[in-house]
Amino acid sequence: MRYRNGWGRARAGRSDGRSRRFPAPPFVALYEAGEAGPIKSGLEVEIMSSEVVHVEVTGKDGKALQRFYSEVFGWKLDTNNPGEYGMLRQDSQKITGGVGAAPQGSPGGVTFYVHTADPKATLATIEKLGGRVLMPLTEVAPETTIALFADPEGHVVGLM
Predict the structure, then answer these.
(1) 0.85 exceeded by pTM
(2) What is the fold of 51-159?
(3) What's the rounded mean pLDDT across residues 44-62?
């Protein structure tokens, strides 16, 4: 049984047998007793974490930033795309990266993107916890949907 983002109920091994509410970002897998190894009784709760999957650096002069990061870290950036966004893909790493021009009117910055199993539910949880959705889920390339949010202190983070 698996619950995705939001609130779920489980008998997480409580001795009194009552259910307990728990937050479940990005999702929680619930296993019947004995399935996931020795547990007391009832269900075992396993929190499965989301992964950082993309890091982005943008600024007023995307080409200069691409040169800078390419030379500093030896990155080979693929700019063969309509926006000449420099994509970093390395076989040895799970995380991709991008360096390019900031959207017009933005000073740019550094953003990391987290993959979640249910981005819509994650955005709802973010708002419940005091964050703000800055950009709703938006398809930026075939099979690539992102969203941006600000945490309660204003730090911008992306979802994929």
Answers:
(1) no
(2) 2,3-Dihydroxybiphenyl 1,2-Dioxygenase; domain 1 (3.10.180)
(3) 80
